[in-house]
Amino acid sequence: MHEARKDLKKLRAVLRLLRSRIGKQLYRRENTELRDMGRLLATSRDAQVRLDTLDALVGSGAVEADAVAPLRAQLEQERDAIATPARGDPSAATRIAAAADRVRGWPVGGDGWDAIEPGLRRSYRRGGARMRDAIADPTVERLHEWRKRVKDLWYHLRILTPAWPAVIEALAEEAHLLSEELGDDHDLAMLGTAARERAGAFADPGELDALLDAIDRRRSELQHAATSLGRRLYADEPGAFVSRAEVWWRAWRGPA
């Protein structure tokens, strides 16, 4: 299931990169199909992530294992109830494989710089815009939207890596780190929501408050780190970023 989700994210990133080349109709059709597949996988993944996030807080010493044990037991029971039928359902993986096969038939019209330049420009511009939105008002939704755009940039940089591996790999790793920081922040926010909705799992309301305080402290650290890294990663104007990438590309592929 985890590998299927990674493949799905890669496909959606390629789709966004080639959006201008394949046309609106095909883009919308494929995007709808991939989005729906993602929803098939999200529930099972989210249940496991809540457990992993809680365990990470316990492991870091931010909360006591005994204090959150009843909540963990409840989350584990819910995870198992969701995951059991999902393991026997091959439909999502089958649909993702079929979508990957369809990529070969997309009307890209060549493999030169012109095929990817509009998508790369859009990816970088949207990431910068979502970053500014999140910094101005760091709601869970805005931070999550920023993270999705960072993930796009990460995948797009990985595609560009052969143009100058030593430089682009480093940029891609920074984008990956940023996406992980924002992802961890989102997971903590979702854990906080789950804990509030299951307040009855805590015999002492103070234990819930202690968990929520630990979540808030860790989220503050992650958002500070993400803002610092994001401002460096999105320091360029989109045109300047794309122009530099084009120089790398043409130096790699030659004038043709």
Overall radius of gyration:
21 Å
Helix-strand string: HHHHHHHHHH
Helix content: over 70%
Poorly predicted sequence stretches spanning 5 or more consecutive residues:
none
Quaternary state of this entry equals single chain
User: What about the largest sheet?
Assistant: none
- By helix and strand content, what is the structural category? mainly alpha
Percent of residues in beta strands? under 5%
CATH fold node name: CHAD domain
Architecture (CATH level 2) name: Alpha solenoid
What is the CATH top level name?
Mainly Alpha
Assigned CATH superfamily = CHAD domain
**Principal-axis shape:** globular
What is the CA–CA distance across the termini?
41 Å
Mean pLDDT across every amino acid position: 90
Number of helices: 10
Q: How many domain units?
A: 1
Number of strands: 0
What does this structure look like?
With 256 residues, this protein is mainly α. It is built from 10 helices and no strands. It has helices at 2-17, 19-22, 24-59, 65-87, 91-103, 113-136, 140-160, 165-197, 205-233, 238-253. Helix 3 (24-59) packs across helix 5 and helix 8 (165-197) packs antiparallel against helix 9. The longest helix is centred in the N-terminal third of the chain and has 36 residues, at 24-59. The chain is globular and about 70 Å long.
